[in-house]
């Protein structure tokens, strides 16, 4: 009271709501801005700059055996794609990879479902993943060769090993992260057992499961190429790894680079096209991931 | 009146529940529960938490009749949510029994649909319509076409027909709660469980939702079990209020609120009843 300023009492007033004119609130951004906002374009620019740098360095080095130019690699790539050799090798690698990937996914889900169903299953999962996840799949190859001999079975064994543990780990983490309220909502519908897992847990944990699938894919792809390199000398109908190994032996360095480029391209396509599309039509559309 | 006997009964239960169970009190309870839809008897709930056993609810008994809007009211820690979860079948009580229409409850089921406070109760991977259909399809209670039609109906009832194809993350909090209510209505549950459904909403939206809930309850003839910590909400929404005192949750009183609606908030009787509950919750002897 004494000293504190008291605000003056002002008259009250009410007025009708003002009409908003149909102003241009919804205009599209200028073209340059939209181009700069396209992540694909920015990344393509980086790739282009790298390719130009490669071409320049290779021309300066001028040694086709050690470092073929970008253009020579591109030519070798185009020739072998046209002749059908690269697509054939890639198809061999991919079909094997998909088979191993599928087995790995089935095994990972079986293990994770056991883990959410019982304490013993949980202990089994955590012990096995703790033991085997740090073990590089390729380190198991000698053992696989001993057990299954040369051929698909050995490769599948290491592929399953490469996919299983990272996928099981992230799937389990995803299941554990499902909010309690959502679980109760699902149980409220009377869902239990496998239907509860399929209709509630799996979709709710999909962001984590997709991360696991991505990691599993990357591990499996690396493992397969490495394993094929080891197999190279003994396998008649090899995949991309064999293609790289064979061409190195014959000192076709440009084709070695073409083989490596194919490995990269397939990896990029699966990462950015397949997985990104799955994410866009699922978890991002549902607002579960930004 | 009825409320005073209820107060007397719960006071007895507080003082000597053993006598109530074996003596004259049990006749009183049985009498009151003759036509009750939901009968909760001597319910005790305990949690095991870090090697300690914590009692959340101690010997709580009450009856909910068909058409009741029964409110569980109490400060946090009085176990009202635990009580609701036990009725929902999500918690297994340590002692006592819960019977719905004469059958003992074992596990969750769509005859007791629940609306929770949290907005993440709606599966984000389903559209609004998909969310409302989901319990019908999950419980296999009808075919796809019928589920779609009934879900559409329920959505229209809560005023969300235009949002059928939206995903939950694009909705406001109030709309999400409306979807949750539509999802519960579509199952035509024996009793609708609501766990502070409007507590996360802003005050204006909460008032609107209370209005709509009362309208829906009239239209559909709902039986509600409603948990809240707001005295005002309990009086507005409820027809009967079970006042619980905390640590562990025990029954303090069972009062009537059927005479109060949203229009009576400022009224003298309303204020008096609110004062009375306030005294029960915070006053002397309130444990």
Brief digest:
The complex is a heterodimer of chains A (290) and B (287). With 290 residues, chain A is an all-alpha fold.
Which architecture of the domain at 87-284 in chain A per CATH? Orthogonal Bundle
Structural class of chain A: mainly alpha
Oligomer type: heterodimer
Q: Which parts of chain A are unreliable, with pLDDT below 50 for 5 consecutive residues or more?
A: none
* Beta-strand percent range of chain A: under 5%
Task: List key phrases describing it.
heterodimer, A: 290 residues, mainly alpha, MetI-like fold, 12 helices, 73% helix, B: 287 residues, alpha/beta, Rossmann fold, four-stranded antiparallel beta sheet, 10 strands
Description:
The complex is a heterodimer of chains A (290) and B (287). By secondary structure, chain A is mainly α. Chain A has a domain at 87-284: Orthogonal Bundle (MetI-like fold). Chain A has 12 helices and no strands. Chain A has helices spanning 31-37, 39-61, 70-82, 85-117, 119-132, 141-148, 152-176, 180-188, 193-204, 206-231, 240-249, 253-284. Chain B folds into 2 domains: 2-112 and 190-282, 3-Layer(aba) Sandwich (Rossmann fold), CATH 3.40.50; 119-188, no CATH class. In chain B, α6 (144-157) crosses α7. In chain B, the strands form 2 sheets. Chain B has a 6-stranded mixed β-sheet with strand order 6-7-8-3-9-10, with helices on both faces. The A-B interface holds A 179, 181-182, 184-191, 195, 199-200, 203-204, 206, 282, 285-288 and B 85, 88-90, 107-110, 112-114, 116, 118, 120-125, 134-135, 138-139, 167-170.
Strand and helix map with partners:
The complex is a heterodimer of chains A (290) and B (287).
Chain A: H1 31-37, H2 39-61, H3 70-82, H4 85-117, H5 119-132, H6 141-148, H7 152-176, H8 180-188, H9 193-204, H10 206-231, H11 240-249, H12 253-284
Helix pairs in contact in A: 3-12, 4-5, 4-7, 4-10, 4-11, 5-7, 6-7, 7-10, 8-9, 10-11, 10-12, 11-12
Chain B: H1 2-15, H2 17-22, H3 24-32, E1 38-49, E2 52-64, E3 69-73, H4 80-88, E4 95-100, E5 103-104, E6 114-115, H5 128-138, H6 144-157, H7 173-185, E7 192-195, H8 203-220, E8 224-228, H9 231-237, E9 240-245, E10 250-256, H10 268-282
Parallel strand pairs in B: 3-8, 3-9, 6-7, 7-8
Antiparallel strand pairs in B: 1-2, 1-4, 4-5, 9-10
Helix pairs in contact in B: 5-6, 5-7, 6-7
